[in-house]
Design a protein that fits this description.
The protein is of the alpha+beta class and 373 residues long. Helix content is 20%, strand content 35%. It is built from eight helices and 16 strands. The strands form three sheets. Strands 1, 2, 5, 6, 11, 12, 14, 15 and 16 form a nine-stranded mixed sheet that branches. A four-stranded antiparallel sheet has the order 4-3-7-8, with no helix packed on it. It has a three-stranded antiparallel sheet with strand order 9-10-13. The relative contact order is 0.15. The N terminus is likely disordered.
Length: 373
């Protein structure tokens, strides 16, 4: 019946139309696609330079074919200008291929990417950087520019940093029987010039000990969300993120409870007494912030969104970010909750007697055994 209906529709349109064939695709136009974030805290800068693609059929099938999305013979340079607008340096980007990437629609095996090594010639956050690209075979020229974030101004609040380093990551008291044993931590940092968006990430580091005798260093990441600063021209603004203790332990449980190799894990121990907990603060400039806001998930009834780009004669993003991190240890009370608490007690966490001798002695005196067998 369904095929019969389709046949009737086809005949009807055939009677009123001179031509039954039509083109789904518009005429193809090569559009450069650029994505790059300069970061003077890194020793290498990476820029993706691709092109739009169009094929007869399912375009998802073409996305994983490098020849469909990549240029050949790209000449890409980064020009450095001082505060007076004078050109002071020009560097040519090199080409390489990167494999072992996360699965997805694009680049199923490897991808071409362009890089600039800056370990011996670091970027200067007082200067502005222009990306200029030429593709002679396609007669294409496109460019973009960005300022850098003042990295010296981006820092964790002094009082938070001192407390974190001295007292460790304290999320619970040392008595599992109390009703108020779960606490919270407030992370504080100061804004930097040219930075508008701040994203905070936490990593919890540990070691897995497997049945076959192998030990594997692992960590779980927890995205703690983003904050916007008052202005890119203002530095020293205090920004905060509150971490709820129950959410922290629930996060660990959620990340590890569905672990595919759990049957191979004998126990989990902490890395050492100074690098279990890591906070990673990343600041992005105003262009980056605008790009992220435009591409955030739609929450209203209007699903159409504008296209944002700062690439001339192309689309994409060329902006800047800067990263700071701080490491500390998990306090004794937090260890107790991790090893024996109701949320994570089933995940085989225990204390190595070499690295955590004092914690074991302190908890043993209170009647709690967290020692590894």
């Amino acid at each position: 019946m369904k095929n019969f209906c389709y046949s009737i529709v086809a005949v009807f349109f055939g009677l009123i139309s001179c031509e039954t064939d039509f083109e789904i695709n518009a005429p193809y136009q090569t559009i450069p696609v650029v994505y790059g974030l300069l970061d003077q805290s890194l020793d290498t800068q990476w820029v993706k330079i691709n092109r739009s693609y169009l094929g007869e059929g399912n375009n998802v099938d073409f996305a994983g074919i490098n020849d469909c999305t990549q240029f050949n013979g790209v000449i890409a340079v980064i020009e450095e200008y001082n505060s007076n607008g004078s050109l002071i340096d020009v560097d040519t980007l090199e080409e390489t291929y990167v494999g072992d990437i996360d699965p997805g629609l694009f680049y199923q095996d490897f991808q071409k990417i362009y890089f600039l090594a800056t370990e011996n010639d670091p970027l200067n956050d007082e200067n502005e950087y222009h990306l200029k690209v030429n593709v002679p075979a396609k007669d294409l020229n496109f460019d973009a520019k960005t300022e850098l974030i003042d990295g010296s101004q981006l820092r964790f609040d002094q009082w938070f940093e001192q407390s974190f380093l001295r007292n460790g990551f304290r999320m619970a008291d040392d008595d599992l029987s109390s009703d108020d044993y779960l606490m919270g931590v407030q992370v504080k940092w100061l804004s930097a010039t040219n930075a508008k968006r701040y994203e905070l990430m936490m990593r919890f580091h540990f070691i897995e000990h497997w049945v076959n005798g192998d030990t594997v260093k692992r960590y779980v990441e927890w995205g703690l969300g983003s904050k916007e600063g008052i202005s890119v021209d203002y530095s020293g603004e205090e920004l905060t993120k509150n971490i709820v203790a129950t959410s922290f332990y629930d996060m660990i449980s959620s990340k590890l409870s569905s672990y595919s190799n759990e049957d191979q894990v004998v126990k989990r121990t902490l890395i050492n007494d100074s690098n279990n907990i890591e906070f990673i603060l990343t600041a992005g400039n105003e262009v980056f912030n605008t790009y992220m806001k435009v591409n955030e998930p739609v929450t209203g009834i209007v699903t159409e969104r504008p296209i944002f780009t700062n690439v001339n004669n192309g689309v994409g993003l060329f902006a800047s970010k800067y990263k700071k991190s701080i490491n500390s240890y998990m306090a004794v009370n937090s260890i107790l909750e991790l090893c024996l608490g109701e949320r994570t007690g089933h995940l085989k966490f225990c204390c190595d007697s070499v690295n955590y001798y004092n914690a074991i002695i302190e908890l043993d005196a209170k009647g709690y055994d967290v020692t590894c067998d």
